[in-house]
Design a protein that fits this description.
Blueprint lengths: L1 H27 L16 H4 L5 H27 L7 H4 L14 E5 L5 H11 L8 E5 L4 H8 L6 E4 L16 H20 L4 E6 L2 E3 L3 H14 L3 E5 L18 E4 L7 E4 H7 L8 H5 L2 H4 L3 E5 L4 E3 L37 H13 L3 E2 L1 H6 L8 E4 L3 H11 L5 E2 L2 E2 L7 E5 L2 E6 L13
Parallel strand pairs: 1-2, 1-4, 2-3, 6-9, 11-12, 12-16
Antiparallel strand pairs: 4-8, 5-10, 6-8, 7-9, 13-14, 15-16
Helix pairs in contact: 1-3
């Protein structure tokens, strides 16, 4: 690994030296201003016909190198933390065994919202280590004001620019969805930069309209080893779709779940998973594509009881879909939970499934009217049973949780069960006992 990184920095140094050599040659070859008597030049011609725009040529060449130099900067930042390993003064010192801490880059997907500042400010405020959590901002759209905001952070972040800003050819009925096509193209490019070009082994993706909780980094650090070791998992998300205030237990900030629904909105992906998804990455609507059975393949994500991200972006390609009714009321966790010191083995597939199903199906069955009217007696939990798509949607909508399904999977659902708080009591909206699989026609 050190040899590979050393080669990369040597390559960057070579490019830097070559660039300066080209600049020097261009300037040497330029005729001295105002020098009379040169062949083919009359007195005063220089005033009328200015010399070749060398500065313009230099700027154009600089644009060509810009994207590559940004990537080199990211590599330099990573190598800096390992510099002591190859410094001559340290080569003969006894080697001290230091626990390996994997680097988890944070990829911020940005476009034309100057409010990315709020996102970056919170990330930098809560980030415990610049070396372990490099922040990479990938910008699409070419929006100058947003680019200026990102540049204002200097070397605290790495600013990448998606090079292809062209419109995408779509069929006529999809012209209004052009934005979704561009977003999918941007994700594909940005994830390739982080996981392939920069060779990171994992990444946490954050949109530019997300604010993170104080234990955001702690949460992903603790769940990384779980994601790597359990093949039945394919992502970790910071988001609870039903995480509005009053629908979560404020005393259970440390509670985590498995979910069959891909939540997004602050999520971690491994490079191995990207290698599976990248060859078939969709042209548009990438998040709904992730929720299809062909991609999910019966794998689950980890999600929290209380969200570790909060969206503040009402404006976007979705035109505020769900924002006013649900998203703006999501509760953001404020209590720091030391997840890296907790035992998360209960989230392993076999252990979790057995324990979760036992708790759900041993809970007393109650009616929708009892839940809605607050007539439940006892601390709970309680089970509210649905038997069809329509019965699920009616009860979910009237109880205030999200009622849409993607490929038959309800938001936050695990084996068909949706867990939430109603009037201070835990409710499991669940299918009948003996549930085996989702019905993709429930969409």
């Amino acid at each position: 690994m050190l040899r590979k990184r050393g080669s990369l920095i040597l390559c960057g140094t070579f490019l830097f030296i070559t660039w300066n050599a080209i600049l020097v040659l261009l300037l040497w070859g330029r005729p001295p201003p105002g020098q009379p008597g040169e062949p083919g030049q009359e007195q005063g011609e220089e005033a009328q016909n200015p010399p070749n725009d060398v500065v313009g040529d230099v700027l154009r060449m600089a644009d060509a190198f810009e994207a590559e130099l940004e990537l080199q900067k990211e590599i330099l930042i990573q190598i800096q933390s390992h510099q002591s390993l190859w410094e001559p003064s340290n080569r003969n010192k006894p080697k001290v065994q230091v626990p390996h801490e994997p680097v988890i880059p944070i990829l911020v997907i940005a476009c034309n919202r100057v409010t990315v500042r709020r996102c970056l400010d919170k990330l930098l405020q809560h980030r415990p280590s610049a070396e372990l959590y490099p922040i990479i901002v990938s910008q699409d759209c070419g929006h100058a004001e947003t680019a200026e905001v990102i540049r204002s952070y200097g070397n605290q972040v790495t600013h990448l620019k998606q090079p292809d800003l062209s419109d995408i050819a779509v069929r006529p009925e999809h012209k209004k969805f052009q934005g979704y096509y561009k977003i999918s193209r941007h994700y594909h490019w940005a994830l390739n930069q982080v996981l392939k070009t920069l060779s990171h082994s994992s990444v946490v993706i954050v949109e530019d309209d997300l604010e993170v909780a104080p234990d955001f980094f702690e949460y992903f650090r603790a769940s990384l080893s779980l994601l790597k070791s359990d093949p039945s998992l394919w992502c970790v998300s910071a988001w609870n779709d039903n995480g509005r205030d009053g629908y979560v237990d404020p005393g259970k900030a440390n509670l985590l779940y498995r979910t069959d629904f891909f939540p997004g909105l602050g999520w971690m992906l491994l490079r191995e998973m990207w290698e599976e998804l990248e060859p078939k990455w969709p042209a548009s609507f990438w998040d709904d594509w992730m929720r299809q059975p062909e991609q999910r393949r019966n794998r689950a994500c980890i999600r929290p009881e209380i969200s570790r991200t909060l969206t503040f972006g009402r404006q976007g390609v979705s035109l505020g879909q769900f924002y006013d009714k649900y998203l703006r009321y999501i509760k953001l966790n404020t209590e720091f939970v030391p997840f890296t010191k907790l035992d998360l083995s209960y989230l392993k597939e076999e252990t979790y499934r057995e324990t979760f199903q036992k708790e759900v199906y041993s809970a007393p069955v109650v009616t929708y009217e009892d839940v809605k009217q607050g007539k439940l007696k006892g601390p709970g939990p309680f089970r509210l049973q649905y038997s069809s798509k329509d019965s699920f949607k009616v009860m979910a909508k009237n109880l205030g949780i999200m009622d849409d399904l993607k490929s038959g999977v309800p938001r936050t659902g695990y084996r068909g069960v949706v867990s939430f708080i109603s009037r201070g009591r835990r409710i499991y909206l669940a299918p009948p006992p003996g549930w085996t699989q989702y019905d993709p026609t429930w969409s």
